[in-house]
Sequence to fold (146 residues):
Amino acid sequence: MRKIGRDGGADVARLIAEARADVEAGRAILGASAARLDAALDALEAATAHLLAGETKDADRLLVAQTHLRLFGLALGGALLTRGAVAAGAGGAETRTMIEPGVETRWSRMARIFAEDLAVEAPSLLARIVSPHARLDDYRALAGLA
Fold:
């Protein structure tokens, strides 16, 4: 959690903005699936803001660190696959066929499948981050430390 707080979260905000630009650039390729990636990025932004908020306890930050990392991967993974789909479709037909026949289609399909099958988990991860039900005492008890 230390790293997301550097510069008041400015580094993370820039990364999210870059990911949003990738999704926007690939909106035509993604079709309706772009909304799933938008929602994942919204969830990441909200979760990060919650963790950076002064009223969030350090213990709660630690309890949801893994969940936040998973959310980060889902949101940015979808954006990066979209970036790949846009890059595979860039240039003229000669460029696309020189790369490898069918690459454009595979990248766009991977991005859509990722958005529809994986990124849709993002809102539920956000809910776990902003209202963690796990308590430090529960973990201590399970580890035999209580």
Q: What stands out?
A: The radius of gyration is 18 Å.
